[in-house]
Amino acid sequence: MKNNVNRELPEDLMSDLHYQPYENTEIGNPDIQRVAPKVRVSTGDDKLVSSIENVVKENVKDGMTISFHHHFRDGDFVFNQVMRVIIDSGLKDLTLAPSSLTDIMNDMVIEAIKAGTITNITSSGMRGKLGDFVSHGGLKNPVIFRSHGGRARAIEDGAIKIDVAFLGVPNADKLGNANGMLGDAVFGSLGYALMDAQYADKVVLLTDNIVDYPNTPASIKQTQVDYVVKVDKVGDPDKIGSGATRFTKDPKELKIAQTVNDIIVNSPYFKDGFSFQTGSGGAALAVTRYLRQAMIDNKIKASFALGGITKPTTDLLEEGLVSKIMDVQDFDKGAADSMHTNKNQQEIDASWYADPYNKGAMVDQLDVVILSALEIDTNFNVNVMSGSDGVIRGAIGGHQDAATAKLTIISAPLVRGRLATVVPEVTSVVTPGDSVDVLVTEVGIAINPKRTDLIKEFAKLPGVPVYSIEELQAKAEKMVGTPKPIEYGDRTVALVEYRDGTIIDAIKEVKD
């Protein structure tokens, strides 16, 4: 079985899991029936429980689905505390359904898999030891990878049915009113966790900071929470934003960022009231700085900025260059602090951010988005999931979701070390080429042939060479050569959903 991006899919597995192959980026206007959680009615005035052990013993059973969020990132202490109890309890055959998996979780997840505690995983991504373990067949069943918007859709329509959600928060009161803005381990927006709080049958908050009732503003509300557990420490604030706000001095990254800015400024979308999304990391932060100056020079203000937010973006809000920030996740303390102090920084959940099956996601209103890539091929398909060795080492995140913008720019170096970034065929398709408009590298740009309007706009852009994607691929291959083909086994270790729930790719087991 092949889908419309020419990827081979396992027909038996597709049938068993009731999946359809990816067809195109058009979502249409379907009527969707959403689900609702069970509710254990509580009229008591205190939901505080003495330990994680008590909650697990009373609520987690074999075969259930449990969830976590990843807003703490590498500073997360909650996940490992809870999983330690679950493994030691002897529970089996659980489905792990976090918003994403970070490196700090890897050892515990591998231990849980080996113990038979976890037999299924659905997540936005995985890296490091866990990605290597799964890629070599370590998990019983294939991982289901979903975008942030795709996860929200799957929770809302029941494809992911969360039995118990364990949500770490930097503060909560005795009934479970909580936010991400106050406490020692502040991370700002609770955007991804809000889905779990709304739809899980049981919601458990873990915090090191019990505050007076009623706690406001309440992102997660007492109407959603079953238990509040006081722990010694929920996270390390110094590691929550680690690496996210690296200001680059790399000439290659700065060249790419400058070119991205030139593309935006000379596009038809750079006008008063435009909207945009950038990411974290060196090149993306450099784009934000260049864009700031261009907005000042051209007396242009943005209506809103979207996505994972960093301090350089909140600085634009403070300067009046951006009217609103729609915040699903904060990547540094500066952004988290800003959400607490600036009323124009609006916390949004993952559904509002990017669910394709609702009455209007924020990504649908994006004019410009800048995204990265591990690989991009001559059909403009993008891989942010698998390394050139076939090993899982990334995450979909909001990549597919934000790529629906009017101008979708992929910024990437032509090569990384001895590996080509522009390739004949990507290792794994995550974002389809139909969503991509422009590739920006340090040597020049390539414009998707379907965007004849942009080809005319950028034909004579000063100092920006325009190539075909095939020409850039040939340049990359000339620099690093042709790699040896990856050797795969027959077993499928992961399925990659497109944001509408169809399957855009299957990831095979890598041979040793």
From TrEMBL:
InterPro entries the record matches: Citrate_lyase_asu, NagB/RpiA_transferase-like
GO cellular component, one term: cytoplasm
EC number: 2.8.3.10, 4.1.3.6
Reactions catalysed, as given in the entry: citrate = oxaloacetate + acetate; citrate + acetyl-CoA = (3S)-citryl-CoA + acetate
Biological processes per GO annotation: acetyl-CoA metabolic process
Gene Ontology molecular functions: citrate (pro-3S)-lyase activity; citrate CoA-transferase activity
Entries under Pfam families matching the protein: CitF
Main location per the UniProt record: cytoplasm
Presence of keyword tRNA-binding: no
Keywords from the UniProt entry: Cytoplasm, Lyase, Transferase
Compartmental location: Cytoplasm
NCBIfam families referenced in this protein's UniProt entry, alphabetically: citF
Protein name: Citrate lyase alpha chain
Lineage, opening ranks: Bacteria, Bacillati, Bacillota, Bacilli, Lactobacillales
